[in-house]
Design brief:
about 210 residues, alpha/beta, Rossmann fold, 8 strands, about 50% helix, binds adenosine monophosphate
């Protein structure tokens, strides 16, 4: 199975993707995580994407597609996309890539969260510098402030979760990513989940969509 999670930054795609990929034995593909790893390694690719990321803008489609195809060429598990595609051009590139491999997208899940709630969540989001676990300092704080419950590493605020960048990312979503809803809505594989519920409740609803299908 190949699944795409769609939604605003901060809608819970990353959190749900971690749960779902484990549950269904799928490979979690987060283009944001790939780029953050390259930034941390200070690789040439990291240097190329840095300015887009810190400004809250999208990395150019051609580069995103190249990186993804290279990373996924030998992966045989089902793919669970989180944060990709983000433009219609990326969606078309993905369709062509799947077609060339005799595969298809089985489901697109739109995690629906109101814009105001997303802005609040991004401002309160902290990410573990060790294992990547995501916290919300208001609704799901760690037991000990600033420290991951799982691996005890420090929690960080992502550069692009700083107030001045959040507004830009929300606007970029509306301009460039929201058109994907109509791109996929008519495809017969489109599902919607209420992302304003607690993460566990959202996960249960999504898991119910795929019970017995993986
Ligand atoms: P994310 O972790 O998915 O919110 O992504 C963080 C940042 O990485 C985005 O704001 C973009 O700068 C870049 N990025 C991640 N995925 C993509 C994508 N599919 N297309 C373009 N840029 C991306």
């Amino acid at each position: 199975m190949n699944i795409i999670l769609l939604g605003y930054p901060g809608s819970g795609k990353g959190t749900q993707a971690k749960v779902l990929s484990q549950k269904l034995g799928m490979f979690h593909v987060s283009t944001g995580d790939i780029f953050r790893e390259e930034l941390a390694k200070k690789s040439p690719l990291g240097a190329e994407v840095a300015s887009y990321m810190t400004a809250g803008r999208l990395v150019p489609d051609k580069l995103v597609l190249e990186v993804l195809k290279a990373r996924l060429s030998v992966e045989t598990r089902g793919l669970l996309f989180d944060g990709f595609p983000r433009t219609v051009e990326q969606a078309e590139g993905l369709d062509n890539w799947f077609e060339s491999r005799g595969q298809a997208i089985d489901a697109v899940i739109f995690i629906n969260v109101p814009e105001a709630e997303v802005a609040r969540r991004l401002g309160a989001r902290r990410t573990c510098s060790g294992c990547g676990k995501i916290y919300n300092v208001v609704t799901s704080p760690p037991a000990k402030e600033g420290v991951c419950d799982v691996c005890a590493k420090p929690l960080l605020t992502r550069e692009d979760d700083k107030a001045e960048v959040i507004a830009r990312r929300i606007q970029v979503y509306k301009d460039q990513t929201e058109p994907l809803l109509s791109y996929y809505r008519s495809s017969g594989i489109f599902h919607e989940a209420d992302g304003s519920l607690a993460p566990e409740a959202v996960a249960a609803k999504i898991a119910a969509m795929f019970a017995g299908k993986a």
